[in-house]
Amino acid sequence: MDTIKEDVIILGGGMAGLRAAVAAAEYDSKITIGLVSKLYPLRSHSVAAEGGTSAVLNAKDSFDLHAYDTIKGSDYLGDQDAIEEFVRLVPEQIYTTDHWGCPWSRNEDGTIAQRDFGALSFPRAVFAADKTGFHVMQTLYSRALMYPNIHFYNEYFATKLVVENNLFNAITTINIKTGDFVVFQGKSIVFAAGGAGRLYQFSTNAHFVTGDGDGIAYRAGIPLKDMEFMQFHPTGLVPSGILITEAARAEGGILLNNEKKRFMSTYAPNKLEKASRDVVSRAIMWEIEAGRGIKGEYGDMEYVYLDLTGISNLLDERLPMITEIAKKFNGIDAHTEPIPIHPAAHYTMGGIDSNVKTTTLYPNVFAVGENACVSIHGANRLGSNSTNECLALGNVAGKVAAEWAKSHDFASVSISSVNDEEKRIWEDLLKRNGGENVAKIRDDLRINLDKNVGVFRTEDLLQQGLKNIKSYQERYNRITIEDKSSKFNMELQWALELGFMLDLAEIINVGAIMRKESRGAHYRRDFPDRDDKNFMKHTIASYSVNGPQISYKPVVKTKWEPTVRSY
Amino acid sequence: MDEYTVEIKRTDVDGKTRMQTFKVPKDKVSTVLETLLYIKGYLDQTLTFRYSCGMEICGSCGMEINGKPHMACSFVLDNFKGDKILIEPLKHFKILRDLAVDIDPFFDKYKAVKPYVIRNDDGNYQKELLQTPKQFDEYIDYSMCIKCGLCMAACPIEGSDENYLGPAPLTAAWRFIADNRDQGKKMRLEIVSGAEGASRCHFAGECTEVCPKGVNPSFAIQKLRSSMIGLEFQKLFGGK
Ligand SMILES: Cc1cc2nc3c(=O)[nH]c(=O)nc-3n(C[C@H](O)[C@H](O)[C@H](O)COP(=O)(O)OP(=O)(O)OC[C@H]3O[C@@H](n4cnc5c(N)ncnc54)[C@H](O)[C@@H]3O)c2cc1C
Ligand code: SF4
Ligand code: FES
Q1: Residue B56 alpha carbon, nearest atom of ligand 3
Q2: What is the pLDDT of residues A380-410, one digit of tens each?
Q3: Which of A35, A239, A474, B175 has its CA 20 to 30 A from that of B9?
Q4: Ligand 1 centre and the CA of A493: distance in Å?
Q5: CA A317, CA A302: separation in Å to the nearest integer?
């Protein structure tokens, strides 16, 4: 067992983690930062973000409008004080990344351009064509290379947060390349390990978005918030699930059913295709249920069309990536043919219970990005409101973590807790021998969530879903990891990830059963209305050996009264 | 045939190599990445390779497919006639295990060209730096590099000289030089003028041919070379 000491540990090299690392490095050049990530930073899911990032840059726009759009989008589950503070932090981040080299798309006069996005009342999405996440990530990674006090630990898989007296003192990892068990001792830690969108089979997320950060925090006693809110993006490309950005509809793309008819007027008469994601996803599912989906070349999955032929003149300049994707992956020329799409799991609104200062239950543990639940996004995140959160709050998290490190000493590592973890992996997990296949359990779990805990939920489906999850947990006790090698043992990593996924699936499912209303992405057919009297509150899931303990926490309201949400 | 025959070059952690053949049902997979995931999930759990995004944007999954460097995730099997697929690790990289190679030296070279905007007023972020669409067009294509390393595997110079900076790092140098917000041109040109820099390129053009993102490293290196001549000229005649 090796121990590595760094003042600040950042868990995750995506957009949130990189932004935090740079902020911490800038705060004080004498503070050392260990950026621990299971992927090389540029391989993180964040590079896939496509359409844009919302920021108030125009005098005709306002912070109040951005806040209001976010709050309405959240179906009044977002904390309004946090949202008001958040929107004010964003513009500076756009200019900062511009100075660092981000190729933001431009107006003729050389200023940064903005465009429309779903459910925005002003076109405030700043964008880098449809490769926003990719370019921001290149910019942040490059910038991070400038600081000698940022140390990259690439392909280190974190497994456990070591806590004593309510303070973190270390995190245990496996160095994937060597198979060594490595302990990182730190003064403070920032969780930036991303969401859990790969709990679902049909998903826009990168393969390694498996909720490890949520799982690690939860097992260490940090509560998770609002996990039942999983966003389904209306336009996942069939059959791969690759995202077709919302910008495609914001720029004028339309949705068609099997009769080649536009159908959004039935569901969102004003905003049509530009309505909020949850609204559009349900509309598509209803069309398919009513027999107006298309069943064709792509196996069993029924779909509808996204038609971009009406904006073919815009595709090459404003939507080059999705045009290329349609061509490369489906052989479809989006200039002349419609694209097959179906709602896909996309964004984890829930996460570590935190706030706009990025603090959590333990004073030296911070959380940011998709790993955190502030809550800005409430029951439904607006498109273009995540990358800006990674930037704005990543900056906050890096600073506060560095501040803590500057004024505190290292606590000694709780050795027995570390030893327990080493035993759990090498004595228990790797020695299990019941013959159950890790990939098979994972596939079953994902299909189960798609089916029973998906866009439409009912008591019966959810009860069935939970029963299934329990059976997978039981099978997990009987897995056999066939790969016995210590070096680069990806199967072991899959097994560890699956462990977290099973915990999270249960939390999502239990939260969904208990929330007997419909709000944002959580839609109960048996309770189709929002119930502010009983459920305008956050779900809090805390760890216990018997499964998640659920409690609730009030939503913070400043000046926006909940009203009926229509688009 | 309703099966693909997939032949994979395996390398174990002690460096021993062997060829192994798998049969994969066609209706279960549509890309090479899905094929590998199917094999790892259900046929041989020890198979090792890198992947992440599945949409050719993260740069993880470069490998030699039927003798040429490709991204596994965007290698669509429908577009390819034939039932046999040969998969090997990327050339010119040290193999760690099976198809996973050591990419650290590649990222070190990338870092060596100072791939970030350098400015003497750094720290003042009140407003954007103006950049017209025309100025934007000067560098944007070169900024599309996903650091996949395919060009490094295709480059004949990389094959004979592992210290050569190589196509992608040199392209990164040009990407920042060509950005009107940057002021680090001179420093970067010094770096790429070194013995292992742009002058080693023979313009074989293999890099440009294999690049999945249409980056055109070969052209970027040409641009660098002409700027280097400019710099030499300045040095000789003391111009500014
Ligand atoms: C296809 C797509 C398009 C999107 N488009 C937009 C958009 O246009 N606008 C917008 O605002 N948002 C968009 N989003 C959402 C946005 O991209 C994400 O929410 C955001 O990038 C998340 O960043 P992150 O840094 O929190 O997490 P990630 O980028 O997922 O990074 C997580 C990091 O944690 C590390 N990690 C995870 N587990 C472990 C572990 N066990 N040990 C060590 N390291 C670990 C990983 O290696 C990785 O580096 C999009 C999302 C998708 C899927
Ligand atoms: S230049 Fe092209 S081939 Fe080379 S690393 Fe970049 S994207 Fe890959
Ligand atoms: S998996 Fe990301 S490029 Fe292939």
Answers
A1: 3
A2: 999 899 999 999 999 999 999 999 999 999 9
A3: A239
A4: 19
A5: 31
- Counting Cβ atoms within 10 Å, is residue B119 exposed (0-12), middle (13-18) or buried (19+)? middle
Q: Determine whether the interchain pair A491/B40 forms a contact, defined as Cβ–Cβ distance below 8 Å.
A: yes
Nearest CA to ligand 3 atom 3: B56
Domain A415-530 has CATH 3.30.390.30: no
CATH 1.20.58.100 residue spans of chain A = 415-530
Q: Which of A190, A220, A184, A222 is nearest to A410 (CA)?
A: A184
CA distance A353 to chain B (A): 27
Which residue in the block uniquely carries the two structure tokens 């004593």? A164
DSSP A22-46: HHHHHH-TTS-EEEEESS-GGGSGG
Contact between chains at B103 and A206 (C-beta distance less than 8 A): no
- Whether A320 contacts chain B with CB within 8 A: no
Q: What are phi and psi of A384, to 5 degrees?
A: 75, 10
Distance CA A16, CA A358 (A): 11
| Chain center to CA of A16 | 11
Stated as kind and residue range, the H or E segment containing A365 is: strand A365-367
User: Is the shortest distance between the CB of B60 and ligand 3 below 6 Å?
Assistant: yes
Q: Which two tokens stand for residue A19?
A: 């932004």
A236 in Cβ contact with A202 (< 8 Å)? yes
Sequence-ordered list of residues with C-beta below 8 angstroms from that of B95, at least 6 positions apart, any chain? B11, B15, B89, B101, B102
Ligand 1, atom nearest to A386 Cα: 11
Query: Is the Cβ pair B55, A325 closer than 8 Å?
Result: yes
Q: A321 touching B, CB under 8 A? A: yes
Distance (Å, whole) CA A506 – CA A228: 10
H or E segment to which residue B65 belongs:
strand B62-65
Maximum Cα–Cα distance across chain B: 70
A276-316 tens-digit pLDDT = 889 999 999 999 999 999 997 788 899 999 999 999 999 99
Helix (H) / strand (E) element for A538: namely: strand A537-542
DSSP string, A102-151: ----B-TTSSBPEE--TT-SS--EE-STT-HHHHHHHHHHHHHHT-TTEE
Residue with CA nearest ligand 2 atom 3: B211
Which CATH number describes the domain made up of A234-346? 3.90.700.10
Question: Tokens 């600073």 correspond to what residue?
Answer: A399
Ligand 2 centroid from CA A27, angstroms: 34
Residue pair A161/A364 in contact by the 8 Å Cβ criterion: no
The answer to whether A39 touches A208, Cβ cutoff 8 Å, is: yes
* Whole-angstrom distance, CA of residue A21 vs CA of residue A35: 7
Q: What is the DSSP string of B4-59?
A: EEEEEEEE-TTS-EEEEEEEEEGGG-SBHHHHHHHIIIII-TT-------SSSSS-
First to last CA, chain B: 68
Over residues B175-228, the pLDDT tens digits come to 999 999 999 999 999 999 999 999 999 988 999 999 999 999 999 999 999 999
H helical segments located in A276-364: 277-287, 312-318, 320-330
Counting beta carbons within 10 angstroms of the beta carbon of residue A559, is it exposed (0 to 12), middle (13 to 18) or buried (19 or more)? Answer: exposed
Numbered ranges of CATH 3.90.700.10 in chain A: 234-346
Give the ipTM: 0.96
Q: Which two tokens stand for residue A35?
A: 């950026």
Residues forming beta bridges with residue A541, ordered by sequence position: A224, A550
Instruction: Give the helix, strand, coil percentages of chain A, each rounded to 5.
Output: 40, 20, 40
Is A207 touching B (CB cutoff 8 A)?
A: yes
The yes-or-no verdict on residue A500 having pLDDT over 50 is yes
pTM: 0.97
**Are the C-beta atoms of A179 and A489 separated by less than 8 Å?**
yes
